[in-house]
Design a protein that fits this description.
By secondary structure, chain A is of the alpha+beta class. Chain A is built from five helices and 16 strands.
Amino acid sequence: MPQIVTLTTDFGLGSPYLAAMKGVILSINPAVRLVDIAHTVAPQNIRQGALLLAEATTWFPAGTIHVAVIDPGVGTERRIVYAHIGDQQYLAPDNGLLSRLAAKTRPSRIIVLENAEHWLPSVSNTFHGRDIMAPVAAQLSLGMEPDRLGPSISGLVELDWTAPQVERNRIVGEVVWIDGFGNLITDITSAMLVAIADRSRATTEIAGETIRGIDRTYGERVARTLMALVGSSGYLEVAVADGSAAARLSGKSGTQVTVRW
Amino acid sequence: MPQIVTLTTDFGLGSPYLAAMKGVILSINPAVRLVDIAHTVAPQNIRQGALLLAEATTWFPAGTIHVAVIDPGVGTERRIVYAHIGDQQYLAPDNGLLSRLAAKTRPSRIIVLENAEHWLPSVSNTFHGRDIMAPVAAQLSLGMEPDRLGPSISGLVELDWTAPQVERNRIVGEVVWIDGFGNLITDITSAMLVAIADRSRATTEIAGETIRGIDRTYGERVARTLMALVGSSGYLEVAVADGSAAARLSGKSGTQVTVRW
Amino acid sequence: MPQIVTLTTDFGLGSPYLAAMKGVILSINPAVRLVDIAHTVAPQNIRQGALLLAEATTWFPAGTIHVAVIDPGVGTERRIVYAHIGDQQYLAPDNGLLSRLAAKTRPSRIIVLENAEHWLPSVSNTFHGRDIMAPVAAQLSLGMEPDRLGPSISGLVELDWTAPQVERNRIVGEVVWIDGFGNLITDITSAMLVAIADRSRATTEIAGETIRGIDRTYGERVARTLMALVGSSGYLEVAVADGSAAARLSGKSGTQVTVRW
């Protein structure tokens, strides 16, 4: 069974930096299976990368190695870590990029990359994705024990992930993600909504608009209608049937969303 | 020989939804070979997806499994189908997405996906690409018989694909596709043009411009010249040498194109 | 060990042309490992493609086959060539696309593709990537000797790659590449900078701005500060900490950069 290595970066499309990482990995393990997750994370946007990793990586086979390079602090004192979270493995700068994953599932092992013998012989100051993370990922894919990478540590750098306020007849959350359809994904989970006896009478307020009812799927409203529903990842989202809620509401990350019932 | 599964969606670039589908497929068959065809189909644009599938998928090895998720009706009563068309296999919502392929080559087998035993244990209302199509594609790639997916049916949902009017000295067609170079690809086939004795004297009218002659290849005109030629897929196209016909003519899908001789 | 074939084109995202090439390659060698390098090279921009190939391809395992299709002269008299450069193999139109690579490392073998027996049976006038390069790449990946493709030649078409002027206390170069972060990569190499005794006192002039000092990595300046440093490919680059130098300076390819000390 070939080992899978995924790649998530903020390099942009068609970057020679990504090609270099793939070349380094394949030079060490030509049999590895490479999967691109995303390279269009906004430059240096660690929060966006952290959210993406939390949504995208948990569906992969146990033991998959996920390499994430959103690394504004490259070459400074920030650490690079290996982390085992759930049944997945991660390599990333320790700058919060794994903090959304770690907030849901406590990492079972965290190791700081210190043993340079597994890195490229010459390490640049500006591209540790190629010079450190790529060769280490390739070695791990060949079966190297993570213990050989460096010392264990007990925790990762955390980011502040505010949780929605859940009250007796109200939940106040926010938009955390906008998908390719313009759906506004919030941090309000389906579990928080179980208190609502009749979803058809609940209201969702966002950007001055009030949406009546929480629907089951996109096709339940006529085209161009604003709607609220629980999406495929288990979060409340605001959508426009056959359209873009992001365009309609000028919604963006951080926009407040209130559900009342 | 590894089985190939291709993916065509309207999810946009770097979508966690695509990563989730890949993760589900690889969890069931880690040896499968995944090929991305396109994820930049305009959201919910079934016609564009149908045209793309018809151009892009027929070059693959016999038996390749093509998964297409442009699915505005997800969670409603629309069906999901398996179709064997030519020597390729398809999984898609039955919303017209396979209709351009089926208009050229009658499907030899169409099966409605009904047997939930091959799906993810919990199926969301909004993402059947991940919960139904991905696991079914993976099972097919492992050799499962399509008959086990559900009952056979005799036809697919069709879209209205208008054919060019072919007259004695004139063909009236339209632009159906704009490629990455800004070439305007029409629905006028090379077969329709065989009636023209002298291509150098034919004219092509589009957006108020008249192009004299049908050329053989892009390099035959000086840079920035508007030209007509038969492209690599066998359709008449309007191009600008070293430039973009789409930008020059504000051409878009549906723009009328008339060839006279 | 599976053979690797990489693909670099100007087809744009989600192009059916790319899918067709992959389909042709996989039909001949289903076990080949396909790696996308870039498909967002600006249409017909041979120089940009040449720079990208020079940066991106040298990291791959020895013997990797790199197929590059930026081919404004398709169907005219321009040749298609196989070239062995360094330890990598290339297939490309002979239009300068390999000239940046060849300027660094003299090709050890150049062969003109002439033997049509290795091509698709019917070759279009407008898409030699699919009809000639893809099947030839697949045959090479199966072990075919390059000699069977056609006659050897001694040189490739060259483009004019101006070198920086290196003087006693000054180097005048130019921006040749802008990466996804907006960093302006110049043609001034780290080797040219060794003459500088104290980098903290050197100045870099670009677009009317003067930057003091040459830094080691991005994190050494406070956010939004303009800086100069030697990037991961060994070239001097102008960057903005946590920002885009391209946006700040309106920098583009050809912008003059002067280092003084």
